[in-house]
């Protein structure tokens, strides 16, 4: 093998083979880098075990309402308590939620992400503290205990083991550090603090107040199906006992990973892996086609070697050694490129998948991806190796130069057809995704995003009416102070800005009768937001009927409906003064109707939405939004200064413009479209290089035949068209095969969420692009064929 590798190295260094070697290296580098990058992403998100004990028995339990089309919803504290008491399919169950908290140190107030958890959470996950202990289920821990993440331990305390027992002021309360937790515990990778969760009397009594995530560990011998059946029975009993809050609500039991990685992310990653697999096939088939052509060109050499005693196994080994050398060199060049691509991908995706923040090329992952690439390339190398071993010594010595070339022609043509078929699928998919992305980018969101800045504020615990009124007044003052900043046109307070990370929903039905007695077609599940009087002006949301909320003393039972909610519930937007009944039984008077807006994400489209006045309720986190005259970044410092004066214990965080929020909302589809487009472009170029190289080779082999045609009166134009027609026929066959592949994908529903509505136009454009690329790639070889001198060519023959 060593001798064959050295001989392959010498052959590739020859001047006549350097172009082939460079083209093969370029295509292999791109293909291998793409495989390593996408497989590393897929492995981290879908395949790598979560840092928990026995992931197979760890389940996530979420709320589901089939009547309203709601899945994966949060859970209320009373429902969680009922589940934990009644369920026997689980040995343990815990609840948690995420929240930003204010932490005061010697350098002022800071805002950190906290995991508010029941004491059983660490045990359910099977995660042990790195130092100290977990939270206990006692009054002392609930009042004063605190766990910190390893990152906080390293950054703030230099990993000092004596950190246990030290104090932090969290939300105005002194808490003692009793343990250090790992940064990544499966359900969270960026939670800086763990705090005992405390429920207000309202949360303990309101089954409609759904804010908790629930995880549970299956009991020994219990299966997911058994647990699901038991939770269905428990949910049915709760719906019977508490119809206003629990009617139609059920529980879904699913593996924790399914909750952490949404269906869209899973589909996107598998599609990227499929695309990179197709690119790898194009790369390897192109390499195999070039090697087949070289084997045919070397038939005289190979025949002579056989006549001198070289065995066929040795000839096969030479071709395999050459391929292995190219794959090794391509892999060496691919790893740095893969590292750069991985950094770009993680920067784009880590907002939706925090576990990607620390992703790097793991040696085991890289080795697996490289092995897959090497096996694929060597498998394709078996074809030219077999052809090389079939070189006949007598034919070679008799200078029968075209025999082997004719026998390998169908294989070369077949590989070119396959390359164009794969390029057709990739390019059509990329253009369809691009069309979907264009549609998302130009969607009418229902509000103006330009020069609009949003800033989030985590509020303290609101234990009573006095605390609520104090915080509401502080928020109103903050909005007034922000609006007084030079360059600010208007300011408002809202519970969650559009395209945010939190979405709360409630059923809306005609009132004043209970919601459950209304027909299903008159009920709608709608997102709800808390807004002040300036919200619609600041965001530019048109009011179609009625008025906005008053600045002061707005009755707490008023509501503004979105257009689609009004039309679904009442069949008209002329509904001011009508009564609606909410899912929790509250009755509200309609004072206005607003245009529909995109609230959840751009891909989801306009959301049915209702708005309640800020005089009624405050979320744990509220948002300040300001519309500016110019660049919003110029007022950030002034907003922070005024916020520090009005609400000194509440640091601002998550400062972003609405344009940035839109970009983040479309980051996943945009990355998918860009990556698939790059793969498609690479596949098209590789296919073009392949057919161009094959055409050039065939012309070189057919010099005598073409010279004879010229001698017999054929015109250069006729020869040029014949060459281009042959290449175009191969490309057309590949495009037709690709069309069948696209049709199969569509029949299987694989294009459902990938821009299927744009697929026909995308395919038409792909056909034009690929056929044009083919003709351009073959134009120079065809031009050379048309300039053959018959006398010189026939004399050479």
Polypeptide structure, described:
The protein has 797 residues and is of the alpha+beta class. It contains 26 helices and 23 strands. It has a 6-stranded mixed β-barrel. The chain has a 6-stranded mixed β-barrel with strand order 15-16-21-18-20-19. β4 and β5 form a beta hairpin. α13 runs antiparallel to α14. The longest helix has 39 residues, at 403-441. It starts with a helix and ends with a helix. Mean pLDDT is 82; it is low at 399-404.
Question: TL;DR of this structure?
Answer:
The protein has 797 residues and is α+β, with helices and mostly antiparallel strands. The chain has 26 helices and 23 strands.
Distance between the termini: 37 Å
Instruction: Characterize the biggest β-sheet.
Output: 6 strands, mixed, barrel
What percentage of amino acids are in beta strands? Answer: 15-25%
Radius of gyration: 33 Å
Count of alpha/pi helices: 26
Layout of strands and helices, then pairs:
Layout: H1 2-13, H2 18-47, E1 58-65, E2 70-73, E3 75-76, H3 77-86, E4 90-105, E5 108-117, H4 121-125, E6 131-132, H5 139-144, E7 145-149, H6 150-157, E8 167-170, E9 173-181, E10 193-196, H7 201-205, E11 210-218, H8 224-241, H9 243-246, E12 249-255, H10 256-260, H11 263-297, H12 299-307, H13 312-349, H14 363-389, H15 393-397, H16 403-441, E13 452-458, H17 465-483, E14 488-494, E15 505-510, E16 524-531, H18 535-539, E17 543-546, E18 558-562, H19 563-570, E19 579-582, E20 587-594, E21 609-613, E22 621-628, H20 636-646, E23 652-657, H21 658-665, H22 667-701, H23 703-711, H24 716-747, H25 759-786, H26 790-796
Parallel strand pairs: 5-10, 7-9, 16-21, 18-20
Antiparallel strand pairs: 1-2, 1-11, 1-12, 3-11, 4-5, 4-8, 4-11, 6-9, 7-10, 8-9, 13-22, 13-23, 14-22, 15-16, 15-19, 17-20, 18-21, 19-20
